[in-house]
Amino acid sequence: MDLPFIVMQFINNMAVCLLYLGRLSESVHLLESTMQGDPALCLHEGYLFNVCTLYELQSSEAAAKKRSMLRLVAKHAGDGFNVASLKLQPAKT
Prior knowledge:
The protein is 70% helix and 0% strand. The chain has helices spanning 3-20, 24-37, 39-42, 45-58, 62-76. The radius of gyration is 13 Å and the shape is globular.
């Protein structure tokens, strides 16, 4: 049993519950503070997908926040990480 992964899943589920309770800011804060504490543990595609979805619900600055997540992924994850979970839109030309 991988305890850190189970804890990360618990925190992710707790954030989803906070969202359903209408506590969006608390949900975002919970996920962000967990990522700041242990970025390598939180670099799971489902976790980051939820964070990016919350950013879209919370702010018009979602794209900038997602780019900061991309920098975090580049720093702590390997090349095999699926960045589609960050829900970034291609640059318009």
